[in-house]
Specification:
iron; CobQ/CobB/MinD/ParA_Nub-bd_dom; single chain; Alpha-Beta Plaits; two-stranded antiparallel ribbon; P-loop_NTPase
């Protein structure tokens, strides 16, 4: 079994468009939407939700108002100003440290699991998909990404799949580390802009630190050919394998409107380029990480 994580370094580069097309081109795969803060793979991957689960991360204090004597001990000790006189809890400010429960003289405060969001098992025409929705202003997105990857491995065992495709989060923070650690390879989708160049460099440093083989494709490369060439130079310097690039194509937007992967409804320049990029991914894994048997 192989696991490929698709990263971007920044938002808006076309990472999810590429991931959805990879899913349509591969067989025996399980999909993971690891961008739990702003999940959107499901929008261009027709699916049916089979199961829905609550995600618990961290704890929140629960106050027994009948046992509380309003002494103010919890309010004065909270360093996050999450408790107000009453006492009343500000969920967004609370870090779940448990100081209030520990020092409450009446034992009126207990810590209970914090429900941070929801995750789903779905069926798609391109294989099982594990995805989630983190609650507004909730934390522990890295923990949720790790949970989704574990569930994907269970799906691999249950279905006999040989590939996990992870649509990773943007940036280089905790959820990106959770989506990348232990995977077989990373595909970085970037754009020919100065911010794309800068963020690609940060992703390259991260994947080098994690010792994960890294590949690169430049989306919409032809809007700034000179910058695209500079990015290719950086990729070579960082030891990243260049898969080929994807041109601007109005059919990408048309596919989004239809809610389908690009390669499923287009034979235009971008779709043809993505097919070529996917073939290079397969070739790279065959050469670097052992055989990867899948139909194209």
């Amino acid at each position: 079994m192989k696991e490929i994580t698709i990263l971007s370094g920044k938002g808006g580069t076309g990472k999810t468009t590429v991931t959805a097309s990879f899913a349509a081109l591969a067989t025996n795969r399980v999909l993971v939407d690891g961008d739990v803060d702003a999940a959107n793979l499901y929008m261009i991957t027709p699916h049916t939700v089979q199961a829905e689960h609550s995600f618990e991360g961290g704890s929140l204090p629960k106050i027994d108002i009948h046992a509380c004597t309003h002494c103010g001990e919890c309010v004065s000790r909270c360093r996050f100003n999450a408790l107000e006189k009453g006492p009343r809890l500000n969920r967004i400010a609370c870090e779940g440290c448990g100081v209030c429960a520990h020092f409450c003289p009446e034992g009126a405060i207990t810590m209970e699991p914090r429900v941070c969001g929801t995750w789903y098992n779905s069926d798609t025409e391109n294989g099982p998909m594990i995805h989630a929705r983190l609650g507004i202003a909730e934390e522990n997105s890295g923990l949720l990404v790790s949970l989704l990857r574990r569930e994907a491995r269970k799906q691999v065992e249950a279905t006999g799949s040989n590939l996990i495709l992870v649509d990773g989060p943007p940036g280089i923070g905790c959820p990106v580390i959770s989506a990348t650690t232990g995977c077989d390879a990373v595909v970085v989708v970037t754009e020919p802009t100065l911010s794309g160049l800068h963020d690609l460099e940060r992703v390259a440093e991260l994947t080098a630190f994690l010792k994960v083989p890294t590949m690169l494709t430049i989306n919409r490369w032809d809007i700034h050919p000179m910058m695209a060439e500079e990015i290719r130079g950086l990729a070579k310097e960082k030891g990243m394998y260049h898969l080929g690039d994807i041109p601007v194509d109005e059919e990408v937007t048309a596919a989004m409107v239809q809610g389908k992967p690009l390669v499923s409804c287009s034979d235009g320049p971008a779709a043809k380029a993505i097919r070529g990029v996917w073939q290079q991914v397969v070739n790279f894994l065959d050469e670097k990480r052992g055989p990867l048997k899948m139909a194209l």
